[in-house]
Amino acid sequence: MRKSVIALLFAAVLSAQSIEYSAGRKTWLLKTASNAYALGVNQRGELQNLYWGGPLWRFDDIHAAQAGPEWSSFDPSQSQTNEEFLGWGGTRYLEPSVKITRANGVRDLVLHYVSHKIDGNQLDIVMKDINDDIFVTLNYLVYPAEGMIRKQAKLENRSGQPLTVESLQSGVWYLPHGEGYRLSYLTGRWAAETQLTREDIHTGEKVIESRKGHTSHNANPWFAIDQDGAANEESGRVWFGALGWSGNWRITVEQTPYSQVRVTGGWNTFDFSYTVKPGESLETPPFYGGYSNHGFGEASRMLHRFERTQILPGGGKARLRPVLYNSWEATEFAVDEPGQKALAEKAAKLGVELFVMDDGWFGKRNTDHAGLGDWTVNPQKFPRGLTPLIEAVRSLGMQFGLWVEPEMVNPDSDLYRAHPDWAMHFPGRPRSELRTQLVLNMARDDVKEHIFSVLDKLASDYPIKYFKWDMNRPFAEPGWDGAPDQKELWVKYVRNTWEIFDRLRAKHPGLEIESCSGGGGRVDLGILKRVDEVWTSDNTEAFDRLRIQEGFSQAYAPKIMSAWVTDVPNMNGRSTPLKFRFLVAMQGALGIGSNLNKFSEADVQLATQMVAYYKKIRGTVQEGKLYRLVSPRIGDVTANQYVSEDGAQSVLFAFLHSQQYRKPAPAIRLAGLDPKAVYRIQVLGQNDWRTFSGAYLMNEGVTVRLAGDYDSTSVLIEKAAN
Ligand code: DGJ
User: Fold this and answer.
1) What's the gap in Å between 516 CA and the centre of ligand 1?
2) Among the atoms of ligand 1, which is closest to the Cα of residue 332?
3) Which of 30, 180, 218, 315 has the most beta carbons within 10 angstroms of its beta carbon?
4) Residue 268: is its pLDDT beyond 50?
């Protein structure tokens, strides 16, 4: 009964208008199945945020916008008014949404409401400076089923003089007035990306950002906020958001002296400057936001579903990710035709579906000191070109993928010798190398066209299904010989790079792309519109991966989380059993990166069984609902459960990693099941099935028999026929 009422309400929300407007109160209400958002125009003509939280059914509950009080000359009204998009002007001292300088030096910008337009799930609100013809249009796109709202801003210069934009943010999110909020965010470094970090929000600003030119390993453009530490995985109010930008970004979490928390996000203002001439406009990347009444777990599931249906190429119809083999950890740069063929034969026997040859196949690429930029097949390693290898891979029933790093150049390369000016640099200054490579200035259209033609030729000459697109260093000396507006490089670089992804996909419709930047250095909702999966981390050590994957899954779908089984000891010298490594990697898009030439018969047998098991459950893992049951940050055990969208299949993964002598693993209470339904469950490696009600499995749980560090198990759970 309860379920059908919820279903009816859900259907009602979806069929009703997602955007309503009250002309009398100059208020807009944006509605989704799981939350609502409201804004209005106050008595001064400023656009003001009014609500962000749980679903509302009564428009009348939203009070009309009212400018805040002026307490003293030091506490002006504009510091206590939740302006939806704040021009830097008048008595505004909060983090601005837009800051400009006119050619005549005047910097004051005060935006007032002009007009609006509702078109289906989109709302455009036009604001204008009180004097000049400088317009800002705020665009809102509501995703009613997914519970998400997209914000974007466009500045138009219809005044007679050029403007220098020093900040143009994508949007601002306001939390309900009050204090005691807690911020969750993702930090890290190379080989230790997406570490979940939580801290209380206090008065002042907390900035998470990238100044490195790419999205970066050090922080990821996602946030989640709860209040009084009250949310956990499955309960409590959580406000969250993520930016779609693959370059310098910034999220500023600010608590004002007046107990108001606001989150501003968009292009990083660091070294930012963009000239908008008369008649021109500048549009920001998107800032997505959502709200959940059901904890961090539900917030993540909302994002996962949103990414699968609205962001990733294919819009929900994309195929399940194939089991992939990647040669990097097995061979590094020592790739050649016989070696790759031998690995391919072994991979195919395990059930691998996509064989990817990594770095080393081109130019003079024998180490990382040379070759980047010269995208022609190395004749010593592949005297007959790539075709014989690709044919062999395809005749083994696998698709072929190829590693590229198009944005980079080694000084020891023909490309650099021909075009030293194409590398990012400041004239007369040293060019800082990292991994003996320089970054090509992708903001230049000639560089962009060259890179497009290189990749287009590869995709045209060979039946390549998949590019692993790498980027192995951040920017340095972001200069641009001769360009008048040097700082625009930060933005134009990303736009031109994205354009190449888009053009390649349009011209080669079956082509898939992986985003890699030395691991997870380029993962964001902008690149995800253009790629099918991402390389989560260069750290493939399975225990470390549990934490990396926990953090990754806060914001990003398991479907895109590429995870390989590799050899041990790895990275930090730890040796985990092969089964443990497989079960860790199976929680995303499974890949294998081991040197298969070293696999024993027993390894081959176990790997074959594991790949077969993964294929049985991958629909649930990749496109189901993830419940993070026990966190690797907390105790001896990590447990994650996935439930298929239709509820018919579920799978549990459990890992023991720091057991004290004879301390039994706890019973693991499952989630996301129907308490009234009966389920049959089977432990991986055992033949018998046992049946339990959903109620029992969620209240009492499953006792997993794990003994000793790095023991692991998986349990298959299937809804029994009624
Ligand atoms: C960094 C990537 O993350 C690795 O997987 C591998 O592709 C190397 N680059 C190759 O240079």
Assistant:
1) 8
2) 10
3) 30
4) yes
User: For 281-298, what is each residue's pLDDT tens digit?
Assistant: 999 999 999 999 999 999
Which residue CA neighbors atom 2 of ligand 1 most closely? 518
Which positions are catalytic?
470, 538
596 touches 569 (CB < 8 A)? no
Kindly report the protein residue whose alpha carbon is nearest to atom 9 of ligand 1: 518
Q: Rounded distance, CA 101 to CA 98, Å?
A: 10
Q: Which helix (H) or strand (E) holds 547?
A: helix 542-555
Pairing type for strands 163-174 and 98-102 reads antiparallel
Protein residue whose Cα sits closest to atom 3 of ligand 1: 518
At 114, the pLDDT band (50, 70, 90 cuts) reads very high
C-alpha 196 to ligand 1 mean position (Å): 24
For domain 63-306, which CATH number applies: 3.40.50.920, 3.30.230.10, 3.40.190.10, 2.70.98.60? 2.70.98.60
- What is the dihedral angle through the alpha carbons of 541, 544, 546, 550, rounded to the nearest 10 degrees? -130
Whether the pLDDT of residue 238 is over 80: the answer is yes
Which bin fits 389, alpha (ψ -120 to 50), beta or left (φ > 0)?
alpha
Checking 442-449 for CB contacts under 8 A at 24+ apart, the result is 442/407, 442/492, 442/493, 442/496, 442/497, 443/480, 443/483, 443/488, 443/489, 443/492, 443/493, 443/496, 444/480, 444/496, 445/496, 446/422, 447/422, 447/496, 448/496, 448/497, 448/499, 448/500
Domain ranges of the chain: 63-306, 315-406+453-480+498-623, 630-719
Q: Which of 538, 541, 592 to mutate to test the pocket of ligand 1 (most atoms within 8 A of CB)?
A: 538
Q: Does residue 567 register a pLDDT over 70?
A: yes
Residue 518 CA, closest ligand 1 atom number: 3
CA angle (159, 164, 165) in 5-degree steps: 100
CATH of 630-719, one of 3.40.350.10, 3.40.50.1110, 2.60.40.1180, 3.40.50.300: 2.60.40.1180
Q: Across the strands, what pairs with 310?
A: none
Torsion of CA 691, 695, 696, 699, to 10 degrees: 150
Calculate how far, in angstroms, residue 574's C-alpha sits from the geometric centre of ligand 1. Answer: 21
Tens-place pLDDT, residues 492-503? 999 999 999 999
Instruction: Give nearest CA residue, ligand 1 atom 1.
Output: 518
Ligand 1 atom closest to Cα of 368?
Answer: 11
Q: What is the dihedral of CA 556, 559, 561, 564, to 10 degrees?
A: 170
Ligand 1 center to 594 CA (angstroms): 14
Going by C-alpha positions, the residue among 322, 459, 471, 358 that lies closest to residue 409 is 471
**Is there a contact between 65 and 133 (Cβ–Cβ < 8 Å)?**
no
Q: What is the pLDDT of residues 647-686, one digit of tens each?
A: 999 999 999 998 888 888 889 999 999 999 999 999 999 9
**Which two three-digit tokens encode residue 659?**
């057991």
Most distant CA atoms of the chain, gap in Å: 80
- Which atom of ligand 1 is the closest one to the Cα of 535? 3
- Ligand 1: residues with CB < 6 A are 328, 358-359, 403, 470, 472, 516, 518-519, 535, 538
What global pTM score does this model have? 0.97
Give the position, in ligand 1's atom list, of the atom nearest the Cα of 358: 7
Give, rounded to a whole angstrom, the gap between the first and last alpha carbons of the chain: 18
Q: Residue 455 — φ and ψ, nearest 5°?
A: -70, -40
How many A from CA of 404 to the centre of ligand 1? 10
315-406+453-480+498-623 is a CATH 3.20.20.70 domain: yes
Distance CA 155, CA 561 (A): 35
**Cα of 217 to ligand 1 centre, how many Å?**
14
**Which residue's C-alpha comes closest to atom 5 of ligand 1?**
538
Q: What is the pLDDT of residue 3?
A: 47
Other beta carbons within 10 Å of 652: 26
Query: For residues 324 and 532, is the Cβ–Cβ distance under 8 A?
Result: no
